[in-house]
Protein backbone atom coordinates (compact mmCIF):
# COMPACT_ATOMS: atom_id res chain seq x y z
CA UNK A 1 0.00 0.00 0.00
CA UNK A 2 2.81 2.38 0.88
CA UNK A 3 4.59 1.59 -2.43
CA UNK A 4 1.43 2.37 -4.43
CA UNK A 5 0.93 5.68 -2.59
CA UNK A 6 4.57 6.72 -3.23
CA UNK A 7 4.26 5.79 -6.93
CA UNK A 8 1.03 7.82 -7.19
CA UNK A 9 2.74 10.85 -5.58
CA UNK A 10 5.76 10.56 -7.90
CA UNK A 11 3.55 10.28 -10.98
CA UNK A 12 1.50 13.29 -9.88
CA UNK A 13 4.58 15.38 -9.17
CA UNK A 14 6.11 14.49 -12.55
CA UNK A 15 2.92 15.52 -14.30
CA UNK A 16 2.06 12.05 -15.51
CA UNK A 17 -1.37 12.11 -13.93
CA UNK A 18 -3.45 13.32 -16.86
CA UNK A 19 -6.86 12.80 -15.28
CA UNK A 20 -9.15 15.84 -15.54
CA UNK A 21 -6.36 18.10 -16.78
CA UNK A 22 -6.89 20.35 -19.71
CA UNK A 23 -4.08 21.68 -21.81
CA UNK A 24 -3.88 25.45 -21.59
CA UNK A 25 -5.14 27.08 -24.74
CA UNK A 26 -3.39 30.01 -26.27
CA UNK A 27 -5.74 31.98 -28.47
CA UNK A 28 -3.15 34.63 -29.28
CA UNK A 29 -2.13 34.68 -32.89
CA UNK A 30 1.35 35.73 -33.87
CA UNK A 31 1.23 37.89 -36.94
CA UNK A 32 4.60 38.15 -38.61
CA UNK A 33 5.71 41.55 -39.84
CA UNK A 34 5.32 41.43 -43.57
CA UNK A 35 7.31 43.38 -46.11
CA UNK A 36 4.21 45.44 -46.83
CA UNK A 37 3.84 46.63 -43.22
CA UNK A 38 7.56 47.50 -43.08
CA UNK A 39 7.26 49.43 -46.36
CA UNK A 40 4.22 51.33 -45.06
CA UNK A 41 6.06 52.23 -41.84
CA UNK A 42 9.05 53.46 -43.84
CA UNK A 43 6.88 55.40 -46.28
CA UNK A 44 4.97 57.09 -43.44
CA UNK A 45 8.26 58.05 -41.76
CA UNK A 46 9.65 59.45 -45.00
CA UNK A 47 6.49 61.45 -45.68
CA UNK A 48 6.62 62.95 -42.18
CA UNK A 49 10.32 63.76 -42.53
CA UNK A 50 9.77 65.31 -45.98
CA UNK A 51 6.96 67.44 -44.53
CA UNK A 52 9.43 68.94 -42.07
CA UNK A 53 12.20 69.34 -44.63
CA UNK A 54 9.90 71.29 -46.97
CA UNK A 55 10.70 74.91 -46.11
CA UNK A 56 8.53 76.53 -48.79
CA UNK A 57 5.86 77.86 -46.42
CA UNK A 58 8.23 78.68 -43.54
CA UNK A 59 9.56 81.72 -45.39
CA UNK A 60 6.41 83.65 -44.40
CA UNK A 61 6.68 82.69 -40.72
CA UNK A 62 6.77 85.58 -38.24
CA UNK A 63 8.98 83.44 -35.99
CA UNK A 64 12.47 82.35 -37.00
CA UNK A 65 14.10 79.42 -35.21
CA UNK A 66 17.68 80.47 -34.48
CA UNK A 67 18.75 77.29 -32.68
CA UNK A 68 17.40 73.90 -31.65
CA UNK A 69 19.32 71.71 -29.26
CA UNK A 70 18.81 68.40 -27.41
CA UNK A 71 19.68 68.52 -23.72
CA UNK A 72 20.40 65.68 -21.32
CA UNK A 73 17.83 65.63 -18.56
CA UNK A 74 19.46 65.53 -15.11
CA UNK A 75 16.85 63.39 -13.37
CA UNK A 76 15.66 60.89 -16.02
CA UNK A 77 16.62 59.11 -19.25
CA UNK A 78 14.40 61.44 -21.26
CA UNK A 79 15.86 64.27 -23.28
CA UNK A 80 14.79 67.89 -23.29
CA UNK A 81 14.71 70.22 -26.28
CA UNK A 82 15.65 73.89 -26.30
CA UNK A 83 14.46 76.26 -29.02
CA UNK A 84 15.86 79.76 -29.43
CA UNK A 85 13.58 81.84 -31.64
CA UNK A 86 13.05 85.39 -32.82
CA UNK A 87 9.97 87.47 -33.61
CA UNK A 88 10.86 88.74 -37.11
CA UNK A 89 7.48 90.46 -37.60
CA UNK A 90 6.49 94.06 -37.00
CA UNK A 91 3.88 93.09 -34.38
CA UNK A 92 4.18 91.75 -30.80
CA UNK A 93 3.34 88.06 -30.35
CA UNK A 94 1.34 86.69 -27.41
CA UNK A 95 1.38 82.94 -28.21
CA UNK A 96 3.30 80.50 -30.42
CA UNK A 97 2.77 76.82 -31.22
CA UNK A 98 5.91 74.96 -32.26
CA UNK A 99 6.51 71.54 -33.79
CA UNK A 100 9.69 69.59 -34.34
CA UNK A 101 10.78 66.28 -35.82
CA UNK A 102 13.52 64.10 -34.31
CA UNK A 103 15.16 60.82 -35.22
CA UNK A 104 17.01 58.25 -33.14
CA UNK A 105 20.47 56.78 -33.79
CA UNK A 106 19.02 54.40 -36.39
CA UNK A 107 17.57 57.28 -38.48
CA UNK A 108 14.06 56.24 -37.44
CA UNK A 109 11.47 58.56 -35.86
CA UNK A 110 12.34 59.01 -32.18
CA UNK A 111 10.03 57.80 -29.42
CA UNK A 112 8.10 60.50 -27.60
CA UNK A 113 6.78 61.04 -24.11
CA UNK A 114 3.98 58.68 -25.11
CA UNK A 115 5.49 55.69 -26.86
CA UNK A 116 2.84 55.67 -29.59
CA UNK A 117 3.98 59.10 -30.80
CA UNK A 118 6.95 58.80 -33.14
CA UNK A 119 9.13 61.56 -34.53
CA UNK A 120 6.77 64.55 -34.44
CA UNK A 121 6.37 66.66 -31.30
CA UNK A 122 4.70 69.92 -30.33
CA UNK A 123 5.08 72.59 -27.70
CA UNK A 124 3.71 76.04 -27.08
CA UNK A 125 4.49 79.24 -25.27
CA UNK A 126 2.30 82.13 -24.16
CA UNK A 127 5.20 84.41 -23.29
CA UNK A 128 4.87 87.95 -24.73
CA UNK A 129 7.48 88.33 -27.44
CA UNK A 130 8.03 91.92 -28.58
CA UNK A 131 8.75 92.62 -32.22
CA UNK A 132 12.33 91.85 -33.25
CA UNK A 133 13.12 90.28 -29.85
CA UNK A 134 14.61 86.85 -29.19
CA UNK A 135 13.50 84.27 -26.60
CA UNK A 136 14.10 80.63 -25.71
CA UNK A 137 12.04 77.81 -24.28
CA UNK A 138 12.93 74.33 -22.97
CA UNK A 139 10.44 71.46 -23.16
CA UNK A 140 11.34 68.72 -20.71
CA UNK A 141 11.08 64.94 -20.96
CA UNK A 142 9.93 64.83 -24.56
CA UNK A 143 11.89 61.78 -25.81
CA UNK A 144 13.81 58.73 -24.62
CA UNK A 145 15.90 58.12 -27.73
CA UNK A 146 16.06 61.32 -29.81
CA UNK A 147 19.51 61.75 -31.29
CA UNK A 148 19.02 64.38 -34.00
CA UNK A 149 16.62 67.27 -34.54
CA UNK A 150 15.73 67.23 -38.23
CA UNK A 151 13.65 70.42 -38.17
CA UNK A 152 11.82 72.76 -35.80
CA UNK A 153 9.33 75.47 -36.71
CA UNK A 154 6.44 77.60 -35.57
CA UNK A 155 3.13 76.43 -37.04
CA UNK A 156 0.74 78.89 -35.41
CA UNK A 157 1.28 82.41 -34.07
CA UNK A 158 -1.20 84.68 -32.31
CA UNK A 159 -0.40 88.38 -32.29
CA UNK A 160 -1.36 90.85 -29.57
CA UNK A 161 -3.68 92.63 -32.03
CA UNK A 162 -5.79 89.44 -32.31
CA UNK A 163 -4.64 88.31 -35.76
CA UNK A 164 -3.27 84.81 -36.41
CA UNK A 165 -0.71 83.28 -38.70
CA UNK A 166 -0.82 79.54 -39.54
CA UNK A 167 1.63 77.43 -41.47
CA UNK A 168 0.06 76.20 -44.70
CA UNK A 169 0.77 72.53 -45.31
Spans of at least 5 consecutive residues whose pLDDT stays below 50 are: 1-41
* Element pattern in H and E: HHEEEEEEE
Distance between the termini: 86 Å
Structural class: alpha+beta
- SS field, number of helical segments: 2
Kindly report the average pLDDT value: 78
Strand content: 35-45%
Assign an overall shape: globular
**Main β-sheet, spatial strand arrangement:** 4-3-6-7
Q: Helical percent range? A: 10-25%
Count of distinct strands: 7
Instruction: Report the biggest beta sheet as strand number plus sense, adding barrel if it closes.
Output: 4 strands, antiparallel
Radius of gyration: 28 Å
In short:
With 169 residues, this protein is of the alpha+beta class. It has two helices and seven strands.
Q: What does this molecule look like?
A:
With 169 residues, this protein is an alpha+beta fold. 18% of the residues lie in helices and 36% in strands. It has two helices and seven strands; from the N terminus they run ααβββββββ. A four-stranded antiparallel β-sheet has the order 4-3-6-7. Strands 1-2-5 form a three-stranded antiparallel β-sheet, with no helix packed on it. β1 and β2 form a beta hairpin. The longest helix is centred in the N-terminal third of the chain and has 19 residues. The radius of gyration is 28 Å and the shape is globular. The N terminus is likely disordered.
Provide key terms for this protein.
36% strand, disordered N terminus, 169 residues, 2 helices, alpha+beta
